[in-house]
Amino acid sequence: MTGPVAAILPDGRRLHLNHGPIDLVVGVDGPARDIAFATATTRFETILQELADELPSLRRAPGQKPPQGSVPRRMYRAVVPHAAATFVTPMAAVAGAVADEVLAAMHTATPMTRAYVNNGGDIALHLDAGQSFRMAMAGLDGTDHGRIEVKADAPVRGLATSGRGGRSMTMGVADAVTVLARTSAQADVAATLIANAVDLPNYPAITRQPACVIDPNSDLGDRLVVKNCPQLARSDVETALARGQEVAARMESDGLIAGAALFLQGASRLLAFPAIGATQKVTEHA
Amino acid sequence: MVDVPKPEKIRCDACPVMCYIAEGKIGACDRYANHSGDLVRLDPLTVIQAGGQTVKFLGNVADTQDWDGDIIQANRPFVTAVGAGTTYPDYKPAPFIVSQIVEDVDMVTVVTEGIFSYCGVKVKIDTDRHIGHERAIVRVDGEAIGHVMTSEYGSKMLSLGGVEHLTGGSKKEGRVTCDALLRLCNREPVEMTIDDGPTVVVQAGHAPVIDGKPEKLMRVGCGSAAIGMFAKQWAPHVDEVIVVDDHITGVLSEHEAGKQLSVPATGIKIKGRRSTPGRYFQVAEPGTGWGGTNVEDPLSILKPADPKVAWPGLRLLFISTTGEQYAYFKLDDDLKPVPAKISAPLLNSAHRVAENCEPSLCSVLFMGGAGGSLRAGVTENPVQLTKSVKDALTYVSCGGAQAYVWPGGGITVMADVMDMPTMSFGYVPTPALVAPIEFTLRRSDYSALGGHMDHIQPVEEVLNSGIRTVGKTAGQPDPNAPSNYRWSAKTKDKK
Fold first, then answer.
1. Could you give the CA distance from residue A172 to residue A237 in angstroms, rounded to a whole number?
2. Which helix (H) or strand (E) holds B150?
3. What distance in Å separates residue A10's CA from the closest CA in chain B?
4. pTM for this entry
5. Cβ contacts (< 8 Å) between B25 and chain A: which residues?
6. Tens-place pLDDT, residues B383-412
7. How many other β-carbons are positioned within 10 Å of the β-carbon of residue B276?
8. What interface predicted TM-score (ipTM) does this complex get?
9. Structural domain includes residue A270
10. Which residues of A74-83 are buried (b: 16+ CB within 10 A; e: fewer)?
11. For position A193, which CATH number holds?
């Protein structure tokens, strides 16, 4: 079995942690970056094992009893508010929960002015008063979807992006849905569910297949996931985005998310989004 | 036949997730897969085995005392960089710094899959057909990926990729270029169009397909050379031969070879610019017809015959430099050529020309430069590696294949993708190619240049069931052979 590995990226300022399917990039501004990194590395060492220990229950819809581990509990807490409305398992928040956990460990160990843990695009943030982070939203092919600025006074310490082409399967057709929330785990599950909702049910040209055919381990079981989505008519793009926006708006009014940006085939919808220059560019390829 | 039942799913034990992976599927990490019931790393380390079995090499083997660099004696495994894995930029020592004992010399192969932003391919296309003017842009999906460069003997050359196209142009240009390079390097076909030229399908080790037609033969020589080679066979059976060639069209009776055989003047005149007797440039435009010209009807390059010299009944053969096209005529009473039935001996000579042509192939040479960060994966003092390569203390190979190291600064290498294991190349979204590159040197030399000595692993530790073993490519030197190194000559001098 291959164990976790840690390395400092060549700029000398960021930490890379890898174990199995998890890759984290950690950045810290503050007087004691070394302490923060050492803490992150120590905390990271056992995270995958802790997840693996409770994996069967994490792949099922959340029950009455919360899981044991700290990361599994973060996942559970993030998905429970959505569980009444739709099928969702704690795995929908796994990436964000890992990011939150590592960030929290560093925060406990040492003061930091700014810090982030980026788990493959799902990011947990720490901001001291007056600080801010600027982040880029990128498409699958490197398309620039614009920038986001998160200031310390905003109720946002997590963001996540879901959509087609990522490592996880999606039940919708969104190219990308970026969500801002109080925690990265909350953003993660919301982005997953909004991306699922950006869809055109019964649209024949969109091909789907059961998730378990692609990945027998998937928590989605035999639910249909999108295999291929052709170029859609502009009106269909708007219809699909509107469905996603409706779900996002409900989450926002329920206080589950702070904002969302939805992208599909060159069109976008922004919802309470502190974006700068996020106006959708014309896609560079036809 | 007995079907041995394989378990439907296998359990991956690479990490604590312990995925159950069904046949043909991959685990959660995208790195491990179930391949016919076996757990495989999708990017396995590729080990080239010179012999049949993997053996622990213990040195001190009696029959290697008088080592002469003969690779047949070598049956030790060589660890290639294919599948070694990398993290870009290279911030940690190359994934496997392998130590193995070779004839009492501790060899270290530093295996790294280098990210080459400065990389591309040089493509040699064996054809006389016109594939576009020098400097014409080569495109894939409408994006410029390179250009036509200086022609070589019997071949057209393309220079594709490079940093200007990978990262210097639009995002799409970079993506398309990277994708085309990746496919070419992995020996897959790539269709490209050349500005003011044809569509060409290039695949390493295969004949080029030009405007839908697979090329068959590489010309035997230019038109003039063909005259020289075949004059003796032609002279007894025909009065005049014109070898149509885009470069130099040959005319037998005027050519020195014809003169030597006392072939009389015929008064046959052709278009083009006469270079020396019997040798003509530019008889037509370049194209995909006869001999790389745009000639479809050979009579189109003929001017009226000189009535003072030519005679009715004069026998005239046109042939292309590959012998694939030929046409036979006799002059009528008005000295106009009319098609006639070719004689058997002359037909044979036409076939002989074709026989002497080699099969037309596309060759793809990967070319890239090992940048400072890649070298840093090998040593703490990157420039020392460059010096060591130049001093012939370090041997550079790509996927075990011999790499030509360019003189001058840096480590800029070229290697034939056909000598490398299949699927040796990958890419990163930069975009840039990921290519295997290995540096092999003595343990002592590695130490001297500031190598990551504490990361050296004995080769036996790398040889596990997760590796992929491939046979040694015929004609490729063993990277471990002492003859590759300067110290080998020194040792001999001492004897």
1. 12
2. strand B143-152
3. 5
4. 0.48
5. 214-216
6. 888 888 888 788 888 888 888 989 888 888
7. 11
8. 0.72
9. yes
10. bbbbbbbbbb
11. 3.10.520.10
